[in-house]
Design brief:
mainly alpha, homotetramer, 67% helix, Tetracycline Repressor, domain 2, elongated, 205 residues, DNA-binding
DNA sequence: GATGAATGAGGATTCATTCAT
DNA sequence: AATGAATGAATCCTCATTCAT
């Protein structure tokens, strides 16, 4: 197994750096978003990144590894930042609002990344299983703990299963993002944060 | 002169018939669910359907048309049945519960179809756009009208945008289905209908 | 595993038929002889056979399988014919002469096949092992039995190991063929049969 | 201005030295023997030699040049040593025995070199032609002269063509070496020297 | 209508070689 | 002299689609 350059330590989630590795990842996000994973040609990614085709294989095992890496590094950064934001917040309602806001702000900032997240990362059952095992599970756990905390504080209703609520919140957010990338109207995704939080907290009634 | 046999009129949504066309659609659902759309080979679908490769092209324009047809015919049957179920129901809360139950029951009944619905139909932005334009829009409209009706009756809170609520409900249901197909545990999807309805109706607080 | 058309039963060793399978094998012999196995492009074989690239994969598992098949079918035919020729011959010296003649006549008749046999089939240790296990072993066994018969008849010296003699005869013949394909002079390979037999039978002294 | 360092004069045939050039040649013999010439990667040779990939190109024109060099330098050493061994020997039978012994001892001593010699050096017609023109021809000439000497002394039969006998002896030896490297049994190649000589000298009868 | 043998465009990947350091 | 990251040409194989039967 050929050694390869180690991933750079501090630019997680942004891919904005100028190392070849970062340029490849960023180019891949754009090309995947444009054409879809299966229709994306490695040559296109290379061209978009300004490197030779073969260079991609110095940094990644192949096309699929590029996609997985995008997801892994993006998710890691996403979760780290969310934890930081939650650090000083104690009221369960506020914690839910922060999580909701973070989700919509982060994806609303980068449409190509959102497309990859909502569409390309889900192109097969095998791939979805892979991802839902680790990273998505971590995210759902964070949401679940917020709910549990709210329930133990007596702020949230206790007859709802926390894991179920976590999935529901994720489902709503997920649909908002998908709807946004498919929408022909231009609007700020993050604008919907309050509405989502209101619905989740107060219900329909 | 018609290029191909017209679709039969009355077996929509089931694919259980024994015409070649139906057998192809059913086989395609299974093969797409098994391997994913891109990895599914036309030959495999033909073999599973018990027809020759070329026969598929007598009934469909190609592989993609098969997938689109699955979606179209499935969705049409789905919506027709939902409308029937809603026919005698008047209370907005009950109407929501019926819609939620229908969603989870229908997909919970056929895992392969659920996989195609949750995974394969979303494999590209172009495809998602196509579908969300018409059929998904119809479904969201039905949900929206239920919400509007509830609001005009004074049963539902009026400060929530009906379209937004419709998308949220869809998002929750969607996540429940996805979570179900990815789950290693065996459980009945429809069991979650009440929990979903409770959350939607009463909120977290 | 896709079924593939069964090999035709009666034209073993010649490849002169006009089925696609035979045309591919014959074309492969020529292209391998011309450029060497590793430098031979599948496209070239297809073009030489007058079929599309993909057609080769209907009949063979790949480039390597084509080479193996050439060897297998050629050798089978070779051994069958040798057995027939030996059928009516009883004197050990004559049997040796027939075997020697058969070897040189068969390869001397088809230079491209001789090149494949002497060069391309030996391009790797793994490949040589594969081939020497079965087919070459069969050939050596035939030669060995001729020697054993001669020894038991009291015609051949008994202090030589029959397997060793078989290998020696094979080695001499092999070198004559190789030398012939490398030679710039044009001569009939089969002309050397008597000389080889003389040397083998009478030795240098 | 010379493009590369001149080959060192005195370590011919051994490659055991510790100059980079020698280490590369020795590593190449091992890697070629292991994987075959075409499957051998330059990177592997470099790693085995403990040098950088690019360094190989300071000493050789490329992968093929490495293989040719191995052959050239090995053969030169082989022939020089054989000449020395023959220096004091006069009887034709003994001279033949010495040549046979030298062949089997030299290759029997280094299996990797034997593999390269029997397999890798013969991977293409073009390559075989190249080699048979010069070095192999020299070797055959040596053997031929031994035979001619024996004939003029009246020790060997005169009705055999000396060049033909030389090729035959070479063919037998070649087959013994090939058989040895393919054999699963462990045995000393040189043990067969007497048997070969016996057969060559006395024939089957 | 049905068949399935045949097609051939298309693309991920490899690896010998280069050259700036 | 030595390095090894980068290059990019080269090719085997896949598989959706066609069409003669």
């Amino acid at each position: 197994m050929p050694r390869r350059p180690a991933p750079p330590p501090h630019d997680i989630g942004s891919f904005r750096g100028t190392t070849k590795r970062e340029r490849i990842l960023r180019a891949a996000v754009d090309v995947f978003a444009q054409n879809g994973y299966f229709n994306a040609k490695v040559t296109e990614i290379a061209k978009a990144a300004g490197v030779a085709d073969g260079t991609i294989y110095l940094y990644f095992d192949g096309k699929e590894d590029v996609l997985i890496t995008i997801f892994r590094e993006y998710t890691r950064g996403y979760l780290e930042q969310l934890e930081k934001k939650l650090a000083g917040i104690n009221r369960p309602e506020d914690r839910i609002r922060v999580a909701i806001g973070h989700h919509l702000e982060t994806l609303g900032r980068d449409r190509a990344l959102a497309v990859v997240s909502q569409v390309e990362l889900r192109h097969s059952l095998k791939f979805m299983s892979l991802l839902s095992q680790q990273e998505v599970a971590d995210y759902l756990n964070m949401l679940r703990k917020i709910v549990e905390h709210g329930q133990s504080e007596g702020v949230f209703r206790r007859n709802l299963h926390p894991q179920f609520v976590a999935k529901s919140v994720f489902g709503i957010l997920d649909e908002m993002v998908t709807s946004w990338i498919l929408s022909e109207k231009e609007y700020e995704l993050a604008e919907q944060a309050d509405q989502v939080a209101d619905l989740v907290l107060a219900g329909l009634l």
